[in-house]
TrEMBL record:
One of its GO terms (molecular function) is sigma factor activity. It comes from Paenirhodobacter ferrireducens. This is Sigma-70 family RNA polymerase sigma factor. The lineage of its organism: Bacteria, Pseudomonadati, Pseudomonadota, Alphaproteobacteria, Rhodobacterales. SUPFAM superfamilies: Sigma2 domain of RNA polymerase sigma factors, Sigma3 and sigma4 domains of RNA polymerase sigma factors. Residues 7-60 form the PhyR sigma2 domain. Residues 100-151 form the RNA polymerase sigma factor 70 region 4 type domain.
Length: 170
């Protein structure tokens, strides 16, 4: 399989990761396109070490961070249409719980969210995620653990988990 074939195979995973990072489908598509343009233009820099998917995730994450830095320099206005769900009642409790977790993910520090998404959503191993993030595996493991603990606190899921564990022990 050629490098371009491997890049093409990774597009769905890149789109999932970008959407989870940006929380906006249009921004995610732009981010993936930017990532793919950079990867194809600089494919001569691919050393052939590790998986192409990890290399692409790293490019995507770096482009995401670049965009965050540029947005901090200038405020961005959102169109009124993007507030579509204001005033609508939720259909199910599960949907509300998912929305709560989604909102809590958005409040996580960027480094914790990036690590958690690579491992929990994309299914990368700790070593693969560490390579994508350019950090030691221990750092990534602690960020994932802190992210999960923060999510439990923000969503009040910690008490539910401990109660279920106690019930199973009886």
């Amino acid at each position: 399989m050629t490098l371009l074939d491997e890049i093409e195979t990774a597009i769905p995973a890149l789109r999932r990761y970008a959407h989870a990072l940006t929380r906006n489908r249009d921004e995610a598509d732009d981010l993936v396109q930017d990532c793919l343009e950079r990867a194809v233009a600089r494919r001569h820099l691919w050393r052939g070490e590790g998986e192409v998917r990890g290399w692409l995730f790293r490019i995507l994450l770096n482009r995401f961070r670049d965009r965050l830095r540029s947005l901090r320099l200038r405020p961005q206005l959102l169109p009124l249409e993007s507030a579509g769900g204001i005033g609508q009642a939720g259909a199910q409790e599960g949907h509300l719980a998912l929305s709560e977790v989604h909102a809590a993910m958005g409040r996580l520090p960027e480094d914790q969210r990036a690590a958690l998404l690579l491992i929990a959503v994309e299914g990368l191993s700790l070593a693969e995620a560490a390579q994508v993030l350019g950090q030691p595996p221990g750092t990534v493991a602690s960020r994932v653990a802190r992210a999960r603990e923060s999510l439990r606190r923000m969503t009040d899921r910690g008490e539910t988990i401990s109660i279920q564990t106690q019930d199973r022990q009886r």
